[in-house]
Amino acid sequence: MTTKQITAATAHEAIQHLYETAFPVEEQIPWRELLRLVGEMGLDFTAYYEGETFLGFTIVYPRPSFNWFWYFAVCDQFRGQGIGQQILSQLIERYKDKANVLDMESPTQPCDNLEQRQRRHDFYLRNGFRDTHVYRTFDTVTMTIMMIGPGAFTLQDWDDLTNELRQHWTWEE
């Protein structure tokens, strides 16, 4: 598996398509805005390939106190084949020097995709993440915040993170 750093100039349609289909619309930043943020905020936008075949991507926001694993997606046709496991292992290794945090749709909230949420939650647990017991609700979706590495994650950490984001981009709440 090889990686390529993605910028606004190197982002291609397959990455955009995966981004726009892998995440609910309410969790997406508009594509052009996301590409602007990659440069402006120093986001680590990485695409993963096997030869010339695009497998998936990650977007990480490196921060002084922890890294925010913001987006992580694997192409539909490669899910369930261990590709996500390989990508996440590489990501954890790359960012092992401090704690790593992510949010995901809560598996404790009644919804239409509960089984998918539970599988995703179990995937992160198997890979060393733990539930921080910090939850945030946007519109009607509750997010569970998970962490790997030392320390704890608090609501203040969440507020600090979202305040940093608001310096670069705002969204309707």
Q: What is the helix fraction of residues, given as a range? A: 25-40%
Distance between the termini: 39 Å
Specify the biggest β-sheet. 7 strands, mixed
Runs in which pLDDT lies below 50 for 5 or more consecutive residues are none
- Would you report the number of β strands? 7
Q: Strand order, main sheet: write it out.
A: 1-2-3-4-5-7-6
Tell me, rounded to a whole number, the average pLDDT: 90
Q: What is the ordering of alpha helices and beta strands?
A: EHHEEEHEHEEH
CATH architecture label: 3-Layer(aba) Sandwich
Broad structural category: alpha+beta
Shape, per Cα inertia axes: globular
Nearest-angstrom radius of gyration?
A: 15 Å
What is the compact description of this entry?
This protein is of the alpha+beta class. 34% of the residues lie in helices and 30% in strands.
Please provide a written account of the structure.
This protein has helices at about 15-20, 30-40, 85-95, 115-125, 155-165; strands at about 1-5, 45-50, 55-60, 65-75, 100-105, 130-140, 140-150. By secondary structure, it is an alpha+beta fold. It has one domain: Gcn5-related N-acetyltransferase (GNAT) (Aminopeptidase, 3-Layer(aba) Sandwich), CATH 3.40.630.30. Strands 1-2-3-4-5-7-6 form a 7-stranded mixed sheet, sandwiched between helices. It is globular.
Task: Note the topology.
Elements: E1 2-5, H1 13-22, H2 31-41, E2 44-50, E3 53-62, E4 67-74, H3 83-94, E5 100-105, H4 114-126, E6 130-138, E7 141-148, H5 155-166
Give the tags.
173 residues, alpha+beta, Aminopeptidase, seven-stranded mixed sheet, 7 strands
